[in-house]
Amino acid sequence: MTASERLMSLCYLNFFADNAPEVLRHTLFITDGPLALFGPLAPLKRRFHEHLAELGEWCMNQGIAAPLMVGIEKSGTFVEHAEQIQDLIPPGHVMRLTNDYINRISGRPETNQYGIDEFYGRRFIYRTKTGDPLVISVLPSPGLLPYEGDSEIEGWDAYPSLRVICEVLDALRTRMYQHAVIPVALAHSAAALPLGVGRSVLTMMAQQNVPGLNLDMQAVQPPTYFKR
């Protein structure tokens, strides 16, 4: 599912670049989660980065801002940390996370090369103008790797799309749940099964798609435990 979501984003980017480049000027692509690929998918990160860098260079040659992409996290170590320190970040400001800082809050040694195998975007903490912290990841300039290289990659100039992305997120903030923005919340509401009927729907789907299966959820008895 993660790979499918990421690949769909690339497909839309390519489609607009080929057929309607102007759309890229005012379209923000939002990913539910960081701009990264973990576990067995991690090797795809390099290809994603190369493709997005080439697309970014093409956009620059066309006079278009690099692809506007952002990943938004709803849970995890960095989200918890953002909640703990949010009062130290003025509303409407971004906190830049250096490699040393990331290693420290994630419990890794100082020499650890964080994120080089998984991330094609770099993390920031943005406190919206309403005061809510968002952990976001943003693409670097074409030719730069988000967690590799010298101090240049940790500077503001390496992320030219950061300002406009934060301004857009301010307009998309919603209180439907913590760390939510409207497009992600709408996507979840469209794709998720309602809590009240979720079991009935899954049971019906199983009965229709698995031949010979007859499920009676009420008849399922708890296991019996024997004590010696």
Judging from the principal axes of the Cα atoms, what is the shape? globular
Assembly state (oligomeric): single chain
Count the beta strands.
7
| Count of runs of 4 or more consecutive helical residues | 7
The strand line-up of the biggest sheet is: 1-2-5-4-3
What class, by secondary structure content? alpha+beta
Uncertain regions: pLDDT < 50 for 5+ in a row?
217-228
pLDDT averaged over residues: 82
β-strand percent reads: 5-15%
Element pattern in H and E: HEHEHEHEEHEEHH
Query: What is the first-to-last residue Cα distance?
Result: 45 Å
The biggest beta sheet is recorded as:
5 strands, mixed
* CA-atom Rg in angstroms: 21 Å
Binned, the helix content reads 25-40%
| Total individual domains | 1
Explain this structure to me?
By secondary structure, this protein is of the alpha+beta class. It has one domain (about 1-190). About 35% of the residues lie in helices and about 15% in strands. It is built from seven helices and seven strands. The chain has helices spanning about 1-20, 45-60, 75-85, 100-105, 160-170, 180-190, 200-210; strands at about 30, 70-75, 95, 120-125, 135-140, 175, 180. It is globular and about 60 Å long.
What layout of secondary structure does this protein have?
Layout: H1 2-19, E1 29-32, H2 44-61, E2 69-73, H3 77-85, E3 93-96, H4 99-105, E4 122-127, E5 133-138, H5 162-172, E6 173-174, E7 180-181, H6 182-191, H7 198-209
Descriptive keywords:
single chain, 228 residues, alpha+beta, five-stranded mixed beta sheet, globular, disordered C terminus
